[in-house]
Design goal:
The structure holds 2 protein chains of 2 kinds. Chain A is of the alpha/beta class. Chain A is 36% helix and 24% strand. Chain A has 10 helices and 10 strands. The model of chain A has no long low-confidence stretch (mean pLDDT 93). Classes of the chains: A alpha/beta, B mainly alpha.
Chain lengths: 247, 256
């Protein structure tokens, strides 16, 4: 296995069923252990890109490989173990009657025996600070707690690559902080799709900007956010008073 | 987006009584057994119905469920009972005079049969739902070997009913906030459009849930539920009520 490319995307092309192009040749390599922010305006193709990383969508041209393994139908089981996707709306992710059942869903799909599943559930809930909530139904949790449980459902699969789609959307500042504190402790490669630019700067040393289906910038997050012209050209804007060179 | 955080517990009333603590599969089986016993009781065996009602009252007492709560929840059977009230009016001869009305005797018996058995059955399931949370109920059904697909569908329904009613509530508030005030039938168009939108949204959510499931390695088969062994004394304890009801029903059948 080639550790140099935890994620390898080359010439990735994808059009929606109605023919409108979503990705027009994306090239992206991510090294194991990196945390990379994926930035870009609405409709740029960010979510379409991440759905290719675990084979929910398959490339119409180009290739995607995870840790050297091509994303093909034959490899789905292993690919989905390696790549954990936390979706934007936790209500889409948490569907079982209790938190414990939901966190156990992924490991059980991997075919792990009962005790191993229980251990994974416990470890994942501990990691997100939700131990003790295993018996509760997801809809009795606050939004921030549900987002953390959604993260646990993916951590329980022991992924090598964690993909988060808009992890801070709808979170209050304290829940946003809690989530950042958890994310920095995780020993995984992370791909974070976000509009929250200070969050990208805090968590991700590297950022890529995707616009209109291609990657238009790739570099250290501080440099990307500091390039006013590049930012404006891609409909990105720093929060009022925020100066990336001073944080 | 967020499904609201209403903390509605549905019919479940959390507690720590012996009835609450009993294994859910034993409670489900006991309720089912009790309902069968009630159905098998001859309709003129009044003492058996009285005994059944006393058994339920005893369970409610042990479970610290107020009888007034059970009574309030019995309201759900009203539409079914309303149908039973027609039977004495449209039934066949012989007729009997009650308060100046000529009522059919077989009709009266049929109405009584529906009313008594329906009420006992609804009261028993009310006690089950009041003392058992939905996740426990689903788990109990799993352990009773109910096919996984049924319990999974029931689980999805319970999980997303709240999310979708939350969406419905927000859409209604948004309508009202734009000055909508549906007083007349022809103003129902906006409500109909909202219902359509809600359907499409629910459908799209279903797709997103499916994608999220696939992402966690779902291959079309839900993982089997954990099968825990039910201690024998829990089965024994749970079987007291249905066995007594069944014995009484049998005695009445033999006597008849």
């Amino acid at each position: 296995m080639n550790d140099a490319a935890a994620v390898h995307v080359q010439g990735l092309v994808y059009s929606y069923p109605d023919g409108s192009p979503a990705l027009r040749g994306v090239d992206l390599d991510i090294t194991a252990g990196e945390r990379v922010a994926v930035l870009g305006p609405n409709g740029a193709g960010k979510t379409t890109l991440i759905l290719h990383l675990n084979g929910i969508l398959l490339p119409q041209a180009g290739e995607v490989a995870i840790g050297g393994m091509p994303v093909t139908k034959a490899n789905f089981k292993e690919i989905r173990r390696r790549v954990g996707v936390v979706f934007q709306d936790p209500d889409d992710q948490l569907f079982m009657p209790t938190v414990r059942d939901d966190v156990a869903f992924g490991p059980a799909n991997l075919g792990l025996p009962g005790e191993a599943v229980d251990a994974r559930v416990q470890a994942a809930l501990d990691a997100v600070g939700m131990d003790g909530s295993g018996g509760r139904p997801p809809h009795h949790l606050s939004f921030g707690q549900r987002r953390r449980v959604a993260l646990a459902t993916v951590l329980a699969m022991d992924p090598q690559i964690l993909v988060l789609d808009e992890p801070t959307s709808n979170l209050d500042p304290a829940a946003r902080r809690d989530l950042a504190d958890i994310l920095v402790t995780l020993p995984v490669t992370a791909v974070i799709v976000t509009h929250d630019l200070p969050y990208a700067l805090e968590l991700c040393p590297r950022s890529v900007i995707i616009n209109d289906g291609v990657i238009v910038a790739d570099g250290p997050t501080r440099d990307v956010l500091g390039d006013a012209e590049l930012m404006a050209a891609n409909r990105l804007e720093l929060p009022f008073g925020f100066d990336p060179s001073r944080t | 987006m967020s499904g609201g955080n209403g903390h509605s517990h549905g019919l479940h009333r959390p507690g720590d009584s012996p009835v609450h603590r009993l294994a859910p599969q034993a409670k489900v089986a006991a309720t089912l057994g009790f309902v069968f016993a009630v159905v098998a009781t001859p309709r003129d065996a009044f003492w058996v119905f009285a005994l059944d009602a006393a058994l339920l009252a005893a369970v409610a007492l042990i479970a610290t469920v107020p009888l007034t709560l059970v009574a309030r929840r019995l309201v759900i059977e009203v539409p079914f009972v309303a149908f039973a009230l027609f039977l004495p009016l449209v039934g066949q001869a012989p007729h009997t005079e009650v308060l100046g009305l000529s009522l059919s005797e077989p009709g009266l018996w049929a109405a009584w049969n529906i009313l008594a058995k329906g009420t006992l059955g609804v009261a028993a399931t009310t006690l089950l739902a009041t003392t058992t949370s939905v996740p426990e109920l689903l788990c109990g059904l799993d352990r009773l070997r109910v096919p996984r697909v049924f319990t999974a569908i029931a689980g999805f329904m319970v999980r997303y009913a709240e999310v979708i009613t939350g969406e419905l509530r927000r859409m209604r508030i948004a309508r009202l906030s734009r000055g909508y005030d549906a007083r007349w039938a022809w103003q129902g168009r906006a409500v109909a459009a909202s219902a359509g939108t809600l359907f499409v949204r629910a459908f799209e959510r279903g797709e997103r849930i499916h994608v999220a499931m696939l992402s966690r390695g779902f291959t079309g088969e839900l993982p089997p539920a954990a099968r825990e062994h039910t201690p024998r004394h829990e089965w024994a304890l749970a079987s007291v009520v249905p066995l007594l009801a069944a014995a009484a029903a049998l005695a009445a059948q033999v006597a008849a």
